[in-house]
Amino acid sequence: MNRYIAYCGLNCETCEARLATKNGDQALREKVAALWSELNGVTITPEMISCDGCRLDGAKTPYCDSLCPIRQCALARNVETCGDCCEMDACGKLAAITANNPDALKNLKEKPQ
């Protein structure tokens, strides 16, 4: 599986937080921090926007590092992604992502050839 596919199926390769980190783009960090602050009703600073990818070694945003219930569950179950979990189809945590992002679900269901 593509190493940039997060535990939940989102594609970290296209995530603006990862792109800002990879490219050292302060303006993009500021844009992402403002958007995520507004969407989540919390203060997120540009300094918090540093991430190399959910399943990769390196920096993580504070949410992805320790608050994301999907990532914490996948780590505890020792699965590559939620696509490897027998409870994937009934998981309420995962449904919060896949209900609004059909590509995430598609990514989880794809098997390497």
The total beta strand count reads: 0
Task: Give the integer mean of the pLDDT values.
Answer: 94
Low-confidence stretches: none
Q: Which outline best applies? A: globular
SS class:
mainly alpha
Helical amount: 40-55%
The percent range for strand residues is under 5%
> What value does the Rg take, in angstroms?
14 Å
Count of separate structural domains: 1
Give the CA-CA distance, first to last residue: 9 Å
Secondary-structure element series: HHHHHH
Number of helices: 6
Largest sheet, if any?
Answer: none
Characterize the structure shown.
The protein is mainly alpha-helical and 113 residues long. It has one domain (12-105). The protein has helices at 16-23, 26-40, 62-67, 69-77, 92-98, 102-109. Helix 1 (16-23) runs antiparallel to helix 2 (26-40). The chain starts with 15 loop residues before the first helix and ends with a helix. The mean pLDDT is 94.
Summarize the structure.
This protein has 113 residues and is mainly α. It contains 6 helices and no strands.
Give the tags:
113 residues; mainly alpha; 0% strand; globular
Strand and helix layout:
Elements: H1 16-23, H2 26-40, H3 62-67, H4 69-77, H5 92-98, H6 102-109
Helix pairs in contact: 1-2
